[in-house]
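2024-03-11 09:14:02 INFO worker-7 job=invfold-0412 stage=load source=structure_tokens
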């Protein structure tokens, strides 16, 4: 019989503060008792304690402070346990948290994402002063929840993209241990803002857009800009009455000044250079010609620009955590790839992305190896329409694996058609592999003419690179792989895999607003129609379902106490000394349990630490002595629910969307249509 659980006694007249604290206490008790429970379950069965512990590990408890659910009740309970259940906040630290909440506006957040108004009320009403107050406890938890949200939202993003653009963006988990570690460091720091600056990511592409957001907020407060009328294309040297309006628009957004202009109606070289810069940021052909697409980009209403910036700051946060200084930045909406060294662009090239029907997803991975002279396997969608193939193709019988001379290659269930390496191969002369469950990679293409177009969405999801051999030289930044070595590898015509000495991170970003290092923002067309769902969510509540907790440790050997070991050994000696029961009496032989006759000791109640414990937690530990009848007060703390239906953890791509076998490697037949 399994030992009974021992739960600390709580009076039945539970007040609101006890109803609020009970889940926190239960988590601690269950965690402690899980270590003590012996392995006395039969195969396929679990004790009630095990089931409750697993339920707690799934973060099924939902508490509410000031009518706002806690972001992660489990993480906060673990944090307070780690810090000895002491009060963590005073007025000085609360004011620091309030400043952070107010300043979060510059990141595109709503300041009440971090309880700014409630924190201000807590400070003004003196809720952090005095001892043994339910209101003081409520304020402490409120501030801890605000800090957790701040660290999570800035490090990993406010939202889980699976709730917004399901199937178009894939993110890593938000690690509970790293969040908890950040919070401990911040709570111990004299200046939280200063410490945060060292902890949180600051990649230049994010800081540039954040700077642009502040700049465009100021433009909006000054009245924004007027629309530029449509008309014929403008080229250098043309005189047009719209030119002054274009000058004024770029003066506001780009700081353009042209004192040398002799005729303000003439589209001159100085203005054309500024227009080219604007076109580059907007993902347009940087030819200096002002056509309908450029006019449309210049005419984005300032209010729409601001909300797009907020949406794209959130997208950036989804992938940028712990980003090293060297990486490939694939800017899908701008049809452009940038190689970054020490966060500075050292090279860029044009790219072709997936069509609207076969969209390229947004995710982060690492380039592991290159393939020179790759083969290409014809996808069934093309093969079933093909009657015969030329000498550059090889046909294999899928049942035997042998190469055959098939007259009916359209039978894709029977035959596999592989294109030999060469300049006309669908993948070109090189591909860059970052094995992933999406069958997406970077590669060359024989269709070079498509790079001359401004909107380059023609692939089945993979990314085609305009200058792949030059890119190979930059990516293969290791001895023995200079330009001549790469040229020789291609010229030999043989398929060759080359591993990178150091994997290179690659970020596939879908960004419809981006800024340069001066905070000049450009808005891109939303080719995949992903903006609207995200913009609609920007001021909605966040959920902690992206937080992933470590798996529970296996239960220890039930014989863990030395004294217990002695008892067990003694019982084994006694059992060995007893005579073996007779087998011919027609009776069942008694079965020795190998354990003493006495019942195992009950699991002791869990005691909270005696030192450095806050007054409210001390009251809970000591049996809730002195609890008041009036409770916490409806406007301060409310318990909306004790349990919720657990949230699933998003660890990269969901298992039901990408079989495990796909994440390890990618067969070319699966990726051929890319």
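2024-03-11 09:14:09 INFO worker-7 stage=emit residues=674
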């Amino acid at each position: 019989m399994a030992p009974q659980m021992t739960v600390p006694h709580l009076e039945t007249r539970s007040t609101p503060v006890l109803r609020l604290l009970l889940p926190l206490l239960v988590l601690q008790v269950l965690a402690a008792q899980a270590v003590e429970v012996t392995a006395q379950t039969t195969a396929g069965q679990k004790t009630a304690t095990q089931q409750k512990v697993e339920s707690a590990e799934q973060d099924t408890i939902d508490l509410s402070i000031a009518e706002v659910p806690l972001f992660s009740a489990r993480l906060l309970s673990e944090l307070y346990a780690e810090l000895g259940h002491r009060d963590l906040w005073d007025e000085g630290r609360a004011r620091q948290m309030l400043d952070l909440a107010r300043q979060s506006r510059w990141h595109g957040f709503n300041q009440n994402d971090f309880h700014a108004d409630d924190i201000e009320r807590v400070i003004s009403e003196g809720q952090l002063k005095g001892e043994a107050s339910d209101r003081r406890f409520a304020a402490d938890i409120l501030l801890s929840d605000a800090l957790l949200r701040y660290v999570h939202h800035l490090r990993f993003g406010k939202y889980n993209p699976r709730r917004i653009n399901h199937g178009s963006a894939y993110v890593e988990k938000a690690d509970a241990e790293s969040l908890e570690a950040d919070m401990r460091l911040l709570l111990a720091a004299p200046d939280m803002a200063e410490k945060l600056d060292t902890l949180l990511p600051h990649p230049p592409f994010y800081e540039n857009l954040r700077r642009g957001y502040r700049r465009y907020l100021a433009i909006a407060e000054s009245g924004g800009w007027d629309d530029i009328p449509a008309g014929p294309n403008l080229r250098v040297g043309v005189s047009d009455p719209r030119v002054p309006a274009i000058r004024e628009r770029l003066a506001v957004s780009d700081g353009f000044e042209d004192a040398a202009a002799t005729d303000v109606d003439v589209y001159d070289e100085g203005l054309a250079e500024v227009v080219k810069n604007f076109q580059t940021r907007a993902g347009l052909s940087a030819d200096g010609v002002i056509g309908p697409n450029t006019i449309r980009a210049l005419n984005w209403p300032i209010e729409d620009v601001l909300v797009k910036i907020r949406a794209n700051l959130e997208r950036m946060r989804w992938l940028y955590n712990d980003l090293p200084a060297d990486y490939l930045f694939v800017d899908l909406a701008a049809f452009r790839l940038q190689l970054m060294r020490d966060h500075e662009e050292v090279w860029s090239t044009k790219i072709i992305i997936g069509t609207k029907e076969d969209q390229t997803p947004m995710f982060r991975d690492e380039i592991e190896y290159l393939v020179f002279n790759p083969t290409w396997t014809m996808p069934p969608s093309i093969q079933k329409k093909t009657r015969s193939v030329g000498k550059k193709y090889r046909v294999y019988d899928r049942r035997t694996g042998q190469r055959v001379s098939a007259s009916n290659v359209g039978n894709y269930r029977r035959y596999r058609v592989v294109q030999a390496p060469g300049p006309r191969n669908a993948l070109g002369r090189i591909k860059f592999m970052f094995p992933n469950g999406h069958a997406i990679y970077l590669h060359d293409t024989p269709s070079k003419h498509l790079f001359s177009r401004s909107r380059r969405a023609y692939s089945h999801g993979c990314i085609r690179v305009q200058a792949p051999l030059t890119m190979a030289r930059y990516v293969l930044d290791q001895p023995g792989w200079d330009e001549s070595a790469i040229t020789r590898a291609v010229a030999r015509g043989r398929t060759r895999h080359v591993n990178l000495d150091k994997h290179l991170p690659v970020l596939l970003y879908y960004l419809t607003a981006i800024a340069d290092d001066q905070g000049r923002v450009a808005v891109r067309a939303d080719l995949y129609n992903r903006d609207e769902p995200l913009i609609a969510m920007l001021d909605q509540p966040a959920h902690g379902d992206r937080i992933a907790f470590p798996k529970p440790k296996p239960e220890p050997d039930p014989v863990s106490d030395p004294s217990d070991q002695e008892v067990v050994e003694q019982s084994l000696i006694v059992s060995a000394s007893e005579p073996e029961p007779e087998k011919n009496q027609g009776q069942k032989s008694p079965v020795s349990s190998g354990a003493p006759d006495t019942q195992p000791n009950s699991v002791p109640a869990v005691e909270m630490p005696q030192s450095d414990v806050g007054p409210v937690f001390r009251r809970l530990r000591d049996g809730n002595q002195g609890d008041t009848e009036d409770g916490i007060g409806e406007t301060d703390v409310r318990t909306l629910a004790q349990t919720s239906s657990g949230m699933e953890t998003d660890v990269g791509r969901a298992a039901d969307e990408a079989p495990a076998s796909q994440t390890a490697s990618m067969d070319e037949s699966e990726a051929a249509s890319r």
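2024-03-11 09:14:09 INFO worker-7 stage=report msg="Residues 134-156 form the longest helix (23 residues)."
2024-03-11 09:14:10 INFO worker-7 job finished
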